[in-house]
Amino acid sequence: MRIIVVCGAGASSTFVAARLQAAADAAGLDIEATPAALADLPYYAGLADGLLLGSHLAASARMLPEFDGVPTEVLPHDIATDRDGSRALSFARHMLAPTGVGTTGKEAAMATRTVTIAASHGLHARPAKLFAEAAKNSGLDVTVAKGDGKPANAASILGVIALGANQGDEVTLTVEGDGAETVLDQLAGMLETDAE
Questions:
Q1: Which of 14, 75, 138, 183 could form a disulfide with 35 if both were Cys (CB 3.0 to 4.6 A apart)?
Q2: Percentage of the residues of the chain whose pLDDT score is greater than 70
Q3: For the chain, which domains are there?
């Protein structure tokens, strides 16, 4: 699957595409990340399976009729800080999920773990924000539940705060999708560490 990455005139596109390619290769995904400038997009008409655009280019690229029907995601303005390509990969996975990229034909993997909250003030605003951002950036479906309570969407800051999880409380994390165990390890580690 070819994903065209357009962030600006070309230089930033190259960096983002290279990091995306490295992350896709590490995950064993059949993705070819190709950098391009906005002016070069017509060349890729009919060759692109997906389009990742810099936030300031979204309106311009959507006006290109050659890309009607091509899945498109708008990258956040700070995508250049994505040093390992994991955020760009989560956008690519989200964009191409209907095509089955990254799946093995089996049911999606699911991993669950119960962890104890280590943060001295529990999951209040700052740790909840960091945790929710990590869950969102994973590109997978992540839920978190306190005790026997209803699971909350872990990518929602308000949902995480509403759990009312304090230091020493146990919460259950559930991650669904390709690479669930790896994401679960990362998120569990965040909750089991008092970074304040």
A1: 14
A2: 85
A3: 2-99 (3.40.50.2300), 110-191 (3.30.1340.10)
pLDDT for the residue numbered 103: 40
Catalytically active residues are 124
Q: What is the CA radius of gyration of the chain?
A: 18
Largest CA distance in the chain: 57
Whole-number pLDDT of residue 63: 60
- DSSP-assigned letters across all residues of the chain: -EEEEESSSSHHHHHHHHHHHHHHHHTT---EEEE--GGGGGGGTTT-SEEEE-GGGHHHHHT-GGGTTS-EEEPPTTGGG-TTSHHHHHHHHHHHGGGTTT--SSPPPEEEEEEE---TT-S-HHHHHHHHHHHHHTTSEEEEEETTSPPEETT-HHHHHHT---TT-EEEEEEESTTHHHHHHHHHHHHTS---
How many Cα atoms occupy the beta-carbon half-sphere of 61 within 13 Å? 30
What pTM was estimated for this model as a whole?
0.51
Q: What tokens were used for 155? A: 């990518």
- The predicted pLDDT at position 107 comes to 39
